Amino acid sequence: MVAIWYLLMLAPLIAMAIFWWSYRRKQAARERLANERWQQMVGKAAAPGNVASAAVSESAASVTTHPLKPVQPLASLPYRRRERLLDPAETLFYFLLRTNIPEYEVLCGVSLQRLLTVSGASESENDRLLRGLSQHAVDFVLCDKTMQPRVAIDLLAGEAPAALTAAPDFKTRCLAHAGIRYVRISRTALPKRQDVRNAVLEAGGAK
Fold it and tell me: pLDDT-based confidence at 59, cuts 50/70/90?
């Protein structure tokens, strides 16, 4: 009877130990799967041909699933489709944002005219302000689930060191006045996967 009593007393502890071990094993499996997916995304972003091929395959699959009447381009029009919307660094950073900040919607290549509204003294003044905004764009915008813009992000190239330390420019002033956090990141020094959230959101207190 004493042995049974001790077993009954130890049963909850044994159950908790088994539950914790099972939880840790599942957590480790999820982390391993996330790392594998991350390595796959990095490999695709580093190989432009692979990304382009994947995009073409997805487009072909979409056309097969939803057949539409092909649009015949007019020879007189000087337009043609871009080979890709985002370059390798932008593609990688897009996946970084989507994977590590899933509560936000990620938009690419957004004009300031779409982000901001103006309130000039007259209609002509508003037109002038809007024309000024239309000449500027940001690489990425993070919107909440109501599609309200919260964070604007630019990937800077060779001019990054000077731009990050220079006085606020037109774009910086406009976004700050509108209450949109503006983040500038060097495309040659993208944050690591585990640092993306802090680099984009937490360091500036974005909500």
Answer: very low
